[in-house]
User: Which sequence fits this backbone?
């Protein structure tokens, strides 16, 4: 069997335009977003304006991570210590961490075998005591945003979209991240746009962006350099704490030229996912959940469920696939996996969530970047199917 000649964790090369801008910045030493004068916007400001236009939002705020964006979203929405915030039980540990940083209590909602929020459990837990909801489109799988927004709007509960994995995904033709009150995106190296680290917050709400800009670290009157048409900034000057979560000019310079690459990466990533998924579905021991009817995904990975596997068989599958160079990860079978809710000891009392636990014990995860070509995809398919057949004796 052939092995991949490349790692699925390798990112695409940074565009030459970014390298030139980085060299210019290094030569000038101008790395801080607030060094630039008001009439000559910094690379970070230009990124914010370009991203807002691309995604279809009025305002954007570039930050040092998506986790910071989620935290600032909650603080900007007025979340107070002791407030309860609903989040999916299937997400990355950074999401409940952001809730805890905001002083709130994460309330975990069950997630089904299709990796999306269990709407019955969501409706039951969306009580009058809930101050906000964070929806993680985990691994790019969109929950039923129509149902979620209807329930939240009826109760006046703001929704924050954690779209770290969903840049380029649409729901009913709308970009994910623009449906809730605030959307949060990631530029970490394993995401569609690679800034090494970084994140961005978007919103159409003038008060939210004003509070977020101040708290992000716009001390004194640096908020003027954001070039945002808002009258709300002045009243928050010196009235809010500064968390200093800013993005620097180098990160913005690396990210900006990649925005033009997003449509191509979305197209190729979706084609790669669908090609691999069609082959994996041929196995009676693999289930690949279908997208929801209103969802157009932009995947850079693939998830599938093992059918009729014991835990020991699943562990053997992980070992075999790794030896073949096509490693399969089962979320619930990796010690200290940051996506397994029972490892989030920092939230306090961890609830019993049988649906999510059962899903995590059979849900597999594989990177599938848009840069891969058909021969490489065939190697991945062969590695997965041969490993499954070997474990099941087929």
Assistant:
């Amino acid at each position: 069997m052939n092995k991949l000649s490349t790692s699925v964790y390798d990112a695409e090369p940074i565009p030459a335009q970014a390298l030139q801008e980085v060299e210019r910045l290094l030569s000038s030493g101008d790395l801080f977003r607030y060094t630039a004068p008001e009439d000559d916007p910094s690379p970070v400001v230009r990124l914010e304006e370009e991203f807002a236009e691309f995604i279809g939002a009025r305002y954007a705020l570039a930050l040092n991570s998506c986790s910071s964006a989620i935290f600032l979203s909650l603080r900007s929405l007025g979340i107070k210590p002791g407030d309860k915030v609903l989040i999916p039980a299937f997400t990355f540990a950074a999401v409940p961490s952001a809730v805890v940083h905001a002083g709130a209590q994460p309330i975990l909602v069950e997630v089904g075998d299709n990796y999306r929020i269990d709407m019955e459990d969501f409706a039951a837990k969306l009580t009058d005591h809930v101050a906000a909801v964070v929806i993680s489109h985990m691994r790019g799988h969109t929950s039923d945003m129509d149902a979620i927004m209807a329930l939240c709007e009826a109760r006046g509960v703001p929704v924050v979209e954690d779209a770290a994995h969903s840049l380029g995904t649409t729901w009913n033709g709308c970009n994910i991240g623009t449906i809730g009150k605030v959307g949060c995106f990631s530029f970490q190296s394993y995401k569609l746009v690679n800034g090494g680290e970084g994140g961005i917050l978007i919103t159409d709400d003038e008060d939210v962006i004003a509070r977020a800009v101040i708290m992000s670290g716009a001390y004194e009157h640096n908020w003027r350099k954001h070039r945002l048409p808002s009258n709300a900034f002045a009243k928050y000057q010196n009235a809010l704490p500064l968390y200093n979560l800013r993005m620097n000019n180098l990160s913005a310079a690396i990210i900006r030229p990649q925005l033009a690459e997003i449509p191509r990466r979305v197209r190729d990533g979706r084609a790669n996912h669908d090609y691999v998924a069609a082959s994996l579905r041929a196995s009676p021991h693999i289930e690949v959940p279908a997208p929801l009817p209103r969802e157009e995904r932009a995947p850079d990975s693939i998830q599938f469920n093992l059918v009729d596997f014991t835990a020991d068989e699943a562990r053997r599958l992980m070992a075999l696939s790794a030896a073949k160079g096509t490693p399969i990860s089962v979320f619930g079978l990796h010690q200290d996996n940051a996506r397994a809710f029972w490892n989030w000891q920092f939230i306090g009392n961890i609830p019993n969530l049988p649906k999510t636990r059962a899903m995590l014990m059979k849900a597999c995860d594989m990177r599938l970047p848009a840069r891969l070509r058909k021969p490489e995809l065939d190697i991945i398919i062969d590695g997965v199917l041969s490993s499954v057949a070997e474990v099941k004796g087929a």
